[in-house]
Amino acid sequence: MRYQHMFVLFEHDDGNVLNVSYEMLGEARRLMDGFNRRYALNEKVIAILLGHNVRELAYRAIDAGADAVILADHEELRYPRVNLYTKVICSIVRDRMLVKQAEPSTSDEYVKPRYMLFGADSIGRHISATVLAELESGLASDVNKLVIDDVMITHQYKTNGKPELYRQVLFMYRPDFSGFLWTQILCLDNKNPTIAREYSPQACSVIPGVFEPLQQHDGDARKRVEEGYARIVEYKPEFSNDDLKYRIVSRQIVRDEIGLEDSRVVVAFGRGIKDDPEGNIRMIEEFANLLGAKVAISLPLSKQPFNVSSTLKEKYFIPARVVGSSGKKVAPKLYIAIGISGAMHHLAGMKESDTVIAINPDPDAPIKDESDIFIQGRLEDVLPILIESIRGSEREVRG
Fold first, then answer.
1. What is the pTM of this model?
2. In this prediction, what percent of the chain has a pLDDT beyond 70?
3. CA distances from 360 to 269, 375, 381 (A)
4. Which three-class secondary structure state does DSSP give residue 245?
5. Which end is more exposed in the chain, N or C (fewer Cβ atoms within 10 Å of the end residue's Cβ)?
6. Given this model, what pLDDT does residue 178 score?
7. How many helices (H) and strands (E) are present in the chain, helices listed first?
8. Positive/negative CA dihedral, 142, 144, 148, 149
9. How confident is the model at residue 122 (pLDDT cuts 50, 70, 90)?
């Protein structure tokens, strides 16, 4: 077989493992266990670990679901650099003998991975794009559901208009821009004889927080490695002067100035502000200040669909305030959704909130099913009453 195994980039920040790495390995383990049962194969989950002095992380990857880890440990790999990481990752997955060390049952015909997963974060989004360009295959971004299945396809371009069976296809799902429909993304070979071509690996970047990691058992990984049930294989990268022409001479972590994830109260607004965008944002801002809340938005607002002052646009219509599968995941004590219908990708970012209050004129808005309190009404009618009530309570306390 030319294409085998599911490779997962095990991401960390200078030795601090990112949660999405555990989540991807948990999902990879579930997918490949089902894959092997269904197709009577013995393909593996292989983690790729790059960094400096990070061998201990290899055991964590095995605890999290990896059958094997291919480790590239080098001082130049301490911090992610797109050109270096791309070169090393592509070299690893193309090296048949190296992959055979990680999994001895790998075919002598092996060329590239069958599947690859990356995190949809500041590291994975960049590296996944360059890696898949180098490997000459496709990439689905910001995925939050994965299924492996067979499918019959009839396509003018791919199959020359004839029905063709595609086997072991990775179905990669993400909500479309509206948030109410699933977009299904497939990476398919060209079976049309005039343009025949194979595309592998089938790959995607995975939204953090959507998959459950496996329950980890400290110490099990070392035992599994010692007994030969799991493997850690080292890859020695070599770099040319051209590879190292870009260097990191200093590094500072840019902290999130919005701080949505740490807020106990979040007030979020969506396209329901449309009747008076400027005035409604000012009113929401006042309401949030009274509650000591941070202000969030739904994804469509980050595309700046309304004409408001540059001050408000630069303050609120920004990606850093987006809650959802394409933004931040929050779990405050109180989440107030104002003029938000409740698209799937938004609900994914706030469904862990302790208490949800929604204000929406549509009695059938999907957000209603996720709400502890649903106030049916226009925000222009409801918010002034709430603001006055809070101010009245403050006056009584002061009095």
1. 0.81
2. 95
3. 10, 6, 11
4. coil
5. C
6. 58
7. 10, 17
8. negative
9. confident
Per residue in 15-26, pLDDT (tens digit) is 999 999 999 999
Whose structure tokens read 């009839």? 154
Token representation of residue 82? 């797109």
What average pLDDT score do residues 93-121 get?
97
10 Å CB burial of residue 315 (0-12, 13-18, 19+) is middle
Q: What topology is assigned to 3-234 in CATH? A: Rossmann fold (3.40.50)
Q: 3-234 and 260-398: same fold?
A: yes
- pLDDT class for 395, splitting at 50, 70, 90? low
Single-letter residue type at 104: P
- In the chain, what are the domain boundaries? 3-234, 260-398
Contacts 24+ apart (CB under 8 A), 158-165: 158/188, 158/189, 158/190, 158/191, 158/192, 159/191, 159/192, 160/191, 160/192, 160/193, 160/194, 164/191
Q: Which long-range contacts (CB under 8 A, 24 or more apart) does 221-230 make?
A: 221/59, 221/60, 221/62, 221/63, 222/59, 224/62, 225/59, 225/62, 230/62, 230/66, 230/67, 230/68, 230/69
pLDDT of residue 255 exceeding 80, the answer is no
